């Protein structure tokens, strides 16, 4: 071991072995029904991972477990090597740098694009304090940078309520980015988008990997193919059915079977 290598302190995110998320033998049951069944999965730091699988496979439940919304009956969930997510509540997990985008956009429709991003800076200061406080230069730069990333710079003064469905989704991704998350979980981001919006969303997510890890759940296979550069995980009946490149999983007879039935 190189002694000069930075050794993370207790409680600090340690991704020195590669993975940023470790899920091991995780099970969740609802009234005896196993929504997750002995599931194990590892996500690398900086990775963009697509998660696919038929309805009811457990994809959303998996996100609920990672974000602390649902407690598993058994198994372990670690953020980096040392941070035990099962010992933390939802707000603590969010503060640690794991954030989530739900399917429905939840932007503030009566505020502008800029103000929505500004609000996303609010940690515990409260909405009004944040809106009336003066932004410092770093915060202003950060908002500008995020607006550029999500392609909404020219809409900065437009109310979020008049944006298209796709633009609202990008704004919400921007609001997550304001918090500089280390892991972003995105559930069905392109549902209801136009073809062009789907393509732009693919470019956006591709541009975000590397600096952070992203888990994307989607049913739109053309979209998944366009962003799946590494591993795709296929979930079925609460477990990982298989993992591999998009070509590998699409040509796997078991995957074909769970999607099409026999
Ligand atoms: N709170 C809950 N109470 C009872 N059953 C639940 C609950 N949440 C999920 N389930 C069940 O667990 C299973 C997995 O659900 P989940 O929502 O994780 O699937 P999914 O893979 O996200 O499906 P979809 O592609 O339709 O979004 C389903 O059978 C669902 O009905
Ligand atoms: Mg779901």
TrEMBL record:
The organism's lineage is:
Bacteria, Pseudomonadati, Pseudomonadota, Gammaproteobacteria, Methylococcales
Which Pfam family, just one, is annotated for this protein? BCA_ABC_TP_C
Residues covered by the ABC transporter domain: 21-262
Q: What is this protein called?
A: High-affinity branched-chain amino acid transport ATP-binding protein LivG
Entry keyword set: ATP-binding, Nucleotide-binding, Transport
Superkingdom of source? Bacteria
State the GO CC annotations. plasma membrane
PROSITE patterns noted in UniProt:
ABC_TRANSPORTER_2 (PS50893)
- Annotated signal sequence range: none
Q: Does the keyword Electron transport apply?
A: no
Is DNA damage one of the keywords UniProt gives this record? Answer: no
